Amino acid sequence: MSFKDIFRKSFLEGYAGGEIGTTDIAVTLLCASLLALYIYLVYRIMTRKTFYSKNFNISLVALSIITTAIILTIQSSIVISLGMVGALSIVRFRTAIKEPLDLVFLFWSLALGIICGAGLLKLAVLVSFLLTIVILALDRMPVGKSPMILVVNTDAAEHQSQAILEVVEKYSKYHKIKSRNISSGQLDLVIEVRTSEDEELVNELSALQRIHSVSLLSHDGEVTY
């Protein structure tokens, strides 16, 4: 037996992990599954006001369980872990995450799988509980009111813009003209406003002469403080 064979044998024996019992594997995967279902419920509650993707939510559960299985496999042998690192390094994910909160849940699912696979079940429960409190508390914090978009279609007369702005200033503390478009003798005004008297604003604008249509749109975009 050459020195190379002796070194290889000594290295493999020194770093070979112990076998994980079937009971430990079953308990770990069960806990990971329960906590992954907990993430599923939290994500469903948090996205009640926005677009909900059921497929993404299911993938969070599967991702936690798969990550747990990978960590359990890595613990069994360093040779397997090195081979798995090489195999996973060729995987490329191209899916764009449009919602920042989805990225948080994605990392939460991955971290849960890693923690459960390492056998730190109490830490996994504590982290999940703490994250839930932080996310729900921040979600319920009051934020500034989002501005609204006022769209007015009228005749392209010189005094029309001034009359419209006078009404807007009466009901809105803040306004900004975003777009002014004249086509075929008609004027389209798009104004960003912040008002709590939206119904009165629309009614008074509609009562002006030569007003063809008035629309007031709200959105869930960025908030200006």
Describe this structure in words.
- The chain has 225 residues and is α+β, with helices and mostly antiparallel strands.
- It has two domains: 3-139, no CATH class; 148-217, Alpha-Beta Plaits (2-Layer Sandwich).
- It has helices spanning 3-15, 22-46, 54-76, 78-88, 100-117, 121-139, 158-171, 198-206; strands at residues 148-155, 174-183, 186-194, 211-217.
- Strands 2-3-1-4 form a four-stranded antiparallel β-sheet, covered by helices on one side.
- The longest helix is centred in the first third of the chain and has 25 residues, at 22-46.
- The chain is elongated and about 95 Å long.
- 15% of the residues are buried.
- The model has no long low-confidence stretch (mean pLDDT 77).
Described by the principal axes of the CA atoms, the overall outline is: elongated
**Pattern of helices and strands:** HHHHHHEHEEHE
- What is the typical, i.e. mean, pLDDT? 77
What structural class do the secondary elements suggest? Answer: alpha+beta
For the sheet with most strands, the description reads: 4 strands, antiparallel
Q: Given the structure, what is the number of helices?
A: 8
- Beta-strand content bin: 15-25%
